[in-house]
Amino acid sequence: MSKKTIKELAEEIGVSKTAISKKVTETQKKKWFTKIGNQFVISEEGQKVIKSMFISDKKNQSQTDKQTSFRNNENQVYDSYFYQEQLLAKDKQIDMLQKLLKEQQNLLDQQQRLTLQTNKQIEQLQLESNKKVEYDFTQTDQYVSNAATEDNTEPAQVKKGFFSRLFNKKE
Among 61, 69, 66, 63, which Cα is nearest to 19's? Predict the structure, then answer.
C-alpha cells in the first residue's frame, strides 16, 4: 500500500472527498496528511484508520437500515391491519346505506301508487258529481218549463175581479 490522495481514497471507499474531510479531525489531518504540490497525500496508517471509520459507519448504517426496515415492516403490517379494519367498517356502512335506499325507494313507490289511486277516485267523484248536477239542471229546466207552460195557461183564462173572487161568483 502506498500513499494515496484524498480523491483516490474516496473512490476506493466509495464516498466523496468532502465526506473524508469532514470525518477527519484537524489533529488527524496534521498527523496523516502531507501536501505535495496542490494535493494532500494520506499516509498508510491514515488510510487504514479512515477506511475503518467508513466501514464501521457502513456497518452501523446497515444495522440502522435493518432496524428501520424491520420497523417499516411492522408499520406496514399494522397499517395493513388498520386499513383492512377500515374497509370492513366501510363495507358495513355501504350495505346499511343500500338497504336504506331500497326501503326509501319502496316507500316512494307506494306513495306514488296511493297518490295515483287517490287522484283517480277524485276524478271519478267529480265525474259523478258533474253528471248529478247536469241531471238536476235538466230536471229543474223541465220543472221550470212545466211551470211556465202552466203559467201560460192561466193567463189565457179570464181574470176574475176582486169582488168576484171574494164572493166566488163565476162569470
Answer: 61
